[in-house]
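Re: that backbone. C-alpha cells:
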C-alpha cells in the first residue's frame, strides 16, 4: 500500500527482510486489507541480537552525556521533520485518526529532547567523611534492556522504551507489537539516522512467548521493561525473577472518574468525552468507570450521551473523523460480550452498543448508565469506546468504589472545590491523578501505576532513574 513502510528487523546495524523467515500479515483495521508481511525472528536471530547488545553496551556505557545528548536531539529533529509520514504509517496500521498519530510523533520528539538534556544531569553525591577518606554514590546504566511495547500507541510506546535507556547509557532490544510494527521501525530509523551506533538499539518481531522466554532467560539482559496487560505482565515478571532482573511494568488499568455535583458540567462532559473516545478507548489511562454525584447524575447522563452521539466514526486517514476503528477483530468481540452482560444485569444502553460499518473493525461510541457493580465491565477493563456510568452520594462512597479494584494506573476527579480537590487527590490509589484535567502524560512527568497496574516509571526524571543502578564507592 502506498505510503506504508517496508517491514524489516534491525539487528547488529543491519535491516533484515523476510528472506527464509516466518512472517506475520499486518492488516489495516479500517479495511481488513493487508499492508505487508512482517519478518519474524528465530532462535539464531535472538542469539545474534543478545551477543550484539552485550557488545554495544560495553561501548555505549562509556559514551559521554554529550554524545548521547547529540544523538537524541538529532533524533527529535528528525521525528518532527517526518511527522506526517510517521503519522500516516501509524494510522494505516493502528487506525486512530491522523490528529492523534501526529500528536504521538511530536510527543516522542519531546521525549527524546527531554532525555537529551536530562542525561547531562545524572548526578551522584559525595558523602561527608573524615579527612583522608571519601565515599561516593554514583549512578550507572543498568545494562542491556529487553523492552516490550503494545500496539495501541505504536509511536510513543516504542519511543518511551528507547529514550530513557539510551540517555542512561544502556543498549536496548525492542520488541514492539506485530500488529503495528512499521511505526516502531520509523522511530528506530530516526535514531539510526541520528548517528546511534550499531547494536545500541535492535528491533525484533516474533512469536511473543518465544521471544520473551529467549531474551529473559539470558543473563545478558539486565532489565525488563513491559507495557501491556496485567496477566502477561505477571508471566514476564516470573521469567525475569529467575535471573533477578530489574523491571519496569506498566500494566492494565480501569480508570475511575469521580464527578462531584459542583463540577463545571459543560467543560467536564467535553473533556471526558474527548478523552474517552480517543483511540477508540484503547488507552490504558482511558476514563471508564464514571461515578457521578446524585445531584447532577441525570443531567450528566443526558449531556454525555448527547456529546457521544456527535462523535464521527470512520477511517482515520480522513481528517473529519473523530474516532477510527479498533485495532483488531478481537476488540469488537470483547465489547459485545461486556456490553451484553451489563445490559442483561440491568444497565441502560444510552448510545452505541453495535458495530459500525460493513468492513474493518469499527465499533460505535457507547454509553451505559445505571451500571450495577456486579456487571463484568465494572471490574474488567473494556479497552474500548464504552463509558459506564453510575451514581454516588458521598465522597467516602466514591473513594471506596474508585479504589475497590486491584488496578491503580490513572484516576480522575472533577470539582470546583479546592478542599475537595485536595482530599480526593490524596485518597485515590493511582500512580497518576487528573483533577479537572484529562492530561496524563508529559515528557517531564513520571508515567506509571501502583498495585496490579505495575511499578516503576517511564518519562520524567524517574524514567531515567529506572534505567540506572547506584553504586557506593568507599575510599580510605
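Recovered sequence:
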Amino acid at each position: 500500500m502506498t505510503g506504508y513502510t517496508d517491514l524489516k528487523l534491525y539487528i547488529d546495524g543491519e535491516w533484515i527482510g523476510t528472506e527464509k523467515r516466518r512472517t506475520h500479515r499486518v492488516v489495516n483495521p479500517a479495511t481488513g486489507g493487508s499492508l505487508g508481511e512482517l519478518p519474524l525472528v528465530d532462535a539464531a536471530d535472538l542469539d545474534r541480537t543478545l551477543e550484539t547488545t552485550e557488545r554495544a553496551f560495553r561501548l555505549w556505557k562509556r559514551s559521554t552525556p554529550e554524545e548521547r545528548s547529540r544523538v537524541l536531539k538529532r533524533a527529535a529533529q528528525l521525528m518532527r521533520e517526518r511527522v506526517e509520514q510517521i503519522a500516516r504509517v501509524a494510522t494505516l496500521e493502528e487506525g486512530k485518526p491522523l490528529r492523534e498519530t501526529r500528536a504521538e510523533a511530536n510527543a516522542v520528539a519531546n521525549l527524546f529532547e527531554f532525555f537529551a538534556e536530562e542525561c547531562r544531569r545524572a548526578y551522584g553525591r559525595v558523602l561527608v567523611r573524615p579527612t583522608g577518606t571519601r565515599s561516593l554514590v554514583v549512578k550507572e546504566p543498568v545494562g542491556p534492556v529487553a523492552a516490550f511495547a503494545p500496539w495501541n500507541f505504536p509511536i510513543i510506546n516504542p519511543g518511551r522504551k528507547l529514550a530513557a535507556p539510551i540517555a542512561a547509557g544502556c543498549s536496548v532490544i525492542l520488541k514492539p507489537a506485530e500488529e503495528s510494527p512499521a511505526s516502531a521501525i520509523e522511530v528506530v530509523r530516526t535514531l539510526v539516522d541520528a548517528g546511534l551506533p550499531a547494536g545500541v538499539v535492535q528491533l525484533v518481531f516474533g512469536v511473543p512467548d518465544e521471544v520473551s522466554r529467549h531474551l529473559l532467560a539470558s543473563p545478558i539482559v539486565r532489565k525488563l521493561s513491559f507495557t501491556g496487560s496485567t496477566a502477561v505482565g505477571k508471566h514476564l515478571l516470573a521469567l525475569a525473577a529467575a535471573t533477578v532482573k530489574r523491571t519496569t511494568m506498566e500494566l492494565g488499568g480501569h480508570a475511575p472518574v469521580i464527578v462531584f455535583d459542583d463540577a463545571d458540567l459543560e467543560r467536564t462532559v467535553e473533556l471526558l468525552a474527548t478523552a474517552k473516545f480517543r483511540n477508540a478507548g484503547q488507552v490504558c489511562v482511558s476514563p471508564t468507570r464514571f461515578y457521578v454525584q446524585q445531584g447532577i447524575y441525570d443531567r450528566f447522563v443526558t449531556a454525555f450521551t448527547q456529546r457521544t452521539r456527535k462523535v464521527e466514526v470512520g477511517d482515520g486517514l480522513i481528517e473529519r473523523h473523530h474516532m477510527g476503528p479498533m485495532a483488531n477483530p478481537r476488540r469488537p468481540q470483547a465489547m459485545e460480550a461486556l456490553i451484553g452482560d451489563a445490559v442483561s444485569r440491568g444497565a441502560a444502553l444510552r448510545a452505541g452498543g453495535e458495530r459500525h460499518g460493513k468492513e474493518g473493525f469499527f465499533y460505535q461510541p457507547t454509553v451505559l448508565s445505571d451500571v450495577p457493580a456486579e456487571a463484568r465491565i465494572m471490574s474488567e477493563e473494556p479497552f474500548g469506546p464504552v463509558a459506564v456510568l453510575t451514581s454516588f452520594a458521598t465522597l467516602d462512597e466514591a473513594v471506596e468504589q474508585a479504589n475497590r479494584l486491584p488496578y491503580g494506573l490513572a484516576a480522575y476527579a472533577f470539582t470546583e472545590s479546592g478542599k475537595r480537590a485536595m482530599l480526593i487527590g490524596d485518597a485515590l490509589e493511582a500512580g497518576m491523578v487528573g483533577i479537572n484535567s484529562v492530561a496524563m502524560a508529559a515528557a517531564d512527568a513520571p508515567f506509571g501505576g501502583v498495585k496490579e497496574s505495575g511499578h516503576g516509571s517511564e518519562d520524567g526524571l524517574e524514567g531515567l532513574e529506572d534505567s540506572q543502578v547506584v553504586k557506593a564507592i568507599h575510599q580510605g
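The chain has 14 helices and 22 strands. The first helix runs from residue 43 to 60.
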